Structures are given as C-alpha cells and as structure tokens.
C-alpha cells in the first residue's frame, strides 16, 4: 500500500522500491552544504576521510571553498525535483542540512523539496538519511515551519529508509553577528523581553556528534535532540558578551506583545500572509534564533508564537552522551566559545591599533 502523509492539506505518496547494490559507506551527499551547519558537516566529513559530494543550487557566486576543501560540488535544486536523482548516484548516506532562502515560501524547499528528496532516496536505495529538525517542533502545529519539520520527520520515519533524526536547539555561531560584533562596533543590539531559554551548541560539536551517531548501529532509526550544556535567555547572552567585550551594549528591547500585534495586523492583508506565518514562528523562538537554527536565514520576525510560550529549548543529554560514547567535558560551552572569540578579535584589534600607531606621520 502507498504511504499517505498529510501536511497542511497536502497529500504525498511514497512508494516502496526494492533495495539495490550497496555502495561505499564513505560516500556521502551533503544537502545545504554552504550553510552555517552544512559547511561544518562537510569540513568534519573530509577530515574523517569521507568522500563528500555537495548538492548546491546554481548560483552567481560558486561555492568554490567546498572544492578547495576537497569536496565534489554538483548542481541541484530541491525546488526542481527533476535535478535530484542524478546527484544521488553512488551515494550511501544523505546528510540533509538544507533550508529555504528568506525570499522563498517556506513549503517550497522545507516541505515539497524534502519530500522529493526522500522519495528519490527511497527509489535509489540510499542506505542512510540524516535529517536535521527543530527541538519541540511537534508542540507547535500552528507554526508553519515547526509543522513542516514535524511532518518531514514523520514522512521520513514512514518511508522505510534507515534514518537518524537530529533535533537542534540553536547555534552559537549565530550569536557572533547578532550580539558580539554589534557590541564591539558600538551598534544597537536587538533583543526581546521573552524569558525563553535556548541551549546553544557549537556547530562543530553538532557535526562531530552526527558522524559518531552515523557510525553507531544502535542509533539506527532513532530521533535525538542535541542541546548545549546550558540554556540561556537573550539578556543573559547579552550580559555575557558585555563582560567579555569589556563594554556595555546599546540594547533595543522589542516587547513580545509588539511582535504579536504586528502578526495580527498583517493577517488583514492577503499579500502579507507569509509574513504573518513567519511572525508566528517568531513568537516561539528568540529573534536571533532563526538566523542560527539549522542555518536558517529567515527574518528575525520568524520567531513570535514560541517566544510568548516561555519554552525552554533544551534537553537532557546524559543518555545521548552515554550512547554515543561522548564525554560532556568535550562539548563547548557558550562561555568558552564566546571567550575564545572575544580574546582573538580583541587581540587582532589591539595589533591593528599598534601597527597604525607605528605608521603615523607627524608634520
């Protein structure tokens, strides 16, 4: 019987096809390889000796850095299903880090494109599929992106493929542009008054744990949440950056109530439906999260329904560490990550200032 999966009124059919000839386990395809997480996955895979192929959409600025690292780059587009099959030839494992561009409707890549990719993977007997999702996505069916992530999880689970689903909370890398750089440049830092907490994780640790999980047969067809050692509020992150930078931040606080009102207002106009949907997501995650969660580049307003829910985006990791054979001490803390950043950047700024003084000419 065909498998029927519904998401927001859509029905997708997945058919079961006999298994083909196994390929080398070291042959992987990374989808979304140019993103915040994707590039770390590629880097880690190459360092560990995998043969890495990257599916990249045709673009004016080619992803030459991936080739320079030693990966093979192939052109493909999840919004154009006919381009997918050729990219999967000879591939053992797919690692799916992809998410849509800000200007695209959420469903184009994150639902329709992922369904097409999973169906092609099934048809071409891909041995393993790793999918990155969002923590708590099953708790917010009214938020389009969360609903789509959960529907994709279910579609993958019912596909018959051997999978690993990894839910993520937030990326430390996104905090640099959101807070660290503006504070150093004495520019405005945007935040909210939401009490929501997020357990940020370094994308390098996410990539490392991903490959450990991939090689562990005990975690086949499992769903995990990867979370950092501690969950932080927006204000706590800003305070930490202020301390490490040695200067105060110029903070502009946007009340969650304002974001919620903006969302309701946009509902009156048909052309703003997608904006309102993105605001629905922004009620559920801090404004900075959409820029670093799964490498998503969606607008800051994409976070308003979860923010007001006082949710903690974190999960116990002891059992996961034990299963994967990982020592928690090897997982980067946000304090250490930001301390390393500020130490390095402040040293560079000091060196530049010193060099500038050496070249001063007085008349």
UniProtKB/TrEMBL annotation:
Keywords: Photosynthesis, Photosystem II, Plastid. Residues 27-276 form the NmrA-like domain. GO terms for biological process: photosynthesis. It is found in: Plastid. InterPro entries: HCF244-like, NAD(P)-bd_dom_sf, NmrA-like. This is NmrA-like domain-containing protein. The keyword Plastid applies. It comes from Iris pallida (Sweet iris). GO terms for cellular component: photosystem II; plastid. Coiled coil: none annotated.
């Amino acid at each position: 019987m065909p498998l029927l999966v519904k998401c927001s009124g859509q029905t997708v059919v997945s058919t079961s096809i006999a298994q083909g000839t196994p390929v080398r386990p070291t042959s992987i395809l990374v989808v979304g390889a140019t993103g915040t997480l994707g590039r770390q996955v590629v880097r880690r895979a190459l360092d560990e000796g995998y043969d890495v192929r990257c599916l990249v959409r045709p673009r004016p600025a080619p992803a030459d850095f991936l080739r320079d690292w030693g990966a093979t780059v192939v052109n493909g587009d999840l919004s154009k299903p006919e381009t997918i099959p050729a990219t999967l030839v000879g591939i053992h494992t797919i690692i799916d880090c992809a998410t849509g561009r800000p200007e695209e409707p959420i469903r184009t890549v994150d639902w329709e494109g992922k369904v097409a990719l999973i169906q092609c993977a099934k048809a071409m007997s891909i041995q393993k599929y790793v999918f990155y999702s969002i923590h708590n996505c099953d708790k917010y069916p009214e938020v389009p992106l969360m609903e789509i992530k959960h529907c994709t999880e279910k579609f993958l689970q019912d596909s018959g493929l051997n999978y690993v689903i990894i839910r993520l909370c937030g990326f430390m890398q996104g905090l640099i542009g959101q807070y660290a750089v503006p504070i150093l440049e004495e520019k405005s830092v945007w935040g909210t008054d939401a009490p929501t907490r997020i357990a940020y994780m370094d994308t390098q640790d996410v990539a490392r744990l991903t490959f450990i999980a991939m090689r562990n047969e005990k975690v086949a067809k499992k769903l995990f949440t990867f979370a950092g050692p501690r969950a932080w509020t927006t204000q706590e992150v800003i305070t930490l950056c202020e301390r490490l930078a040695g200067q105060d931040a110029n903070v502009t606080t946007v009340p969650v109530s304002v974001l919620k009102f903006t969302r309701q207002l946009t509902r009156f106009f048909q052309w703003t439906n997608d904006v309102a949907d993105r605001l629905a997501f922004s009620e559920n995650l801090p404004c900075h999260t959409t820029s670093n969660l799964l490498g998503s580049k969606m607008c800051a307003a994409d976070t308003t329904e979860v923010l007001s829910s006082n949710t903690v985006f974190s999960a116990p990791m002891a059992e996961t560490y034990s299963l994967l054979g990982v020592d928690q001490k090897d997982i980067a803390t946000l304090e250490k990550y930001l301390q390393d950043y500020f130490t390095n950047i402040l040293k560079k700024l000091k060196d530049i200032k010193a060099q500038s003084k050496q070249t001063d000419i007085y008349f």
